[in-house]
Amino acid sequence: MIAAKKPAQPKSLIRRPEVDEDVRKSRWRLILGDDSGASGFGLSAENSRRALLLDYLYRRELGPRRNIRAKNKKGGSEASELTVPEWINGVHELFPKRTIERLEKDAIDRYQIEEIVTRPEILNRATPNLTLLKAVLRTKHLMNQEVLHAAKRIVEEVVRELMEKLAREIQTPFLGALNRKRRSALKIAKNFDAAQTIRRNLKHWDPESQKLIVQNPIFFTRIRRHAEKWRLIIVVDQSGSMLENVIHAAVSASIFHKLNQLKSNLVAFDTQVVDLSESVSDPVETLLNVQLGGGTDIANALEYASKLVDDPNRTIVVLITDFFEGGPVEHLFAMAKGLVEQGTHVLGLAALDGQAEPHFDREIAQRLANLGVHIGAMTPGELAQWVAEKIR
């Protein structure tokens, strides 16, 4: 049933809950730290533990670049006596989930506490997230088998979450168009025909309760698109700066691989080329096989991709890179030109992640665009939409 919408309450009448003054001071004391001059305000035992945990991490800001200095600070080593496992345990006991994720992100990204991903007892306590996954992938070559086993749990959990998030975005453009002339008995929310449903059920309107009783919901059917399979070749730069793009490429390639309309290949490169197509259905295995770092030879990667092309007019090559070529640029332009002229659809992506914020060599990207290469920055969902439009 559809209930009448109540008028929104004016914002001026919405009162925020009052915060106790001592709670407010405690929060500011935790935010500003021991060196802020606010140390005279007493903290509860629990908040004192929180302050110690925050101090362990953020005291690393002390130094010539920081303006805040401790006043009459006495020598002490309480914070420095914490171990990383103790810090992780304390953080998980005393802070909410969102704060835990921020602290772990700062520990890895801002202060390079890599010990967090090199000991199994720490990994077993850590919250799986994209930041932690990147740290695992950067340091997995230093891990022994026991640590790697614990790290795999992080990889599996984050990949599972990404798969769930991206699957619908990537699959939807390939599902077929709505056929508004035909009705369907299959009750799927995205096919719900709200206008017809309301029109057909107006006779069930209840004036007393101000509700519409829906007895016969209406749904559209969809036209299934049948087409010969296209080949999608994803070529991704695995240099360190492209790590988040590698993660999204591995997950996206796995989802593309499951689509009936496509035959998918996944190729990673630095100065060497690694064909990951055999493990494309398993993004966890793919990511654990990625070797980060090294130089960049984009031309070499495109040359390898050209060997996978069997029908140029039904092949899409997606090159994911920052376009900072380490090899001869003329070789790169020659390979790109050859692919375009034979009829292959070539897409150069400066970013493939959730934000699609590019950082790339604009001069080389522009010269590739002049040769007929499509250049852009996309989320995985936007990439799927682009591929779907090409194969229609």
UniProtKB/TrEMBL annotation:
The record ties this protein, via InterPro entries, to: LolB, Uncharacterised_CoxE, VWF_A, vWFA_dom_sf
Where does the secretion signal sit in this chain? none
Q: Which residues form the VWFA domain?
A: 229-388
In Swiss-Prot or TrEMBL terms, this protein is called VWA domain-containing protein
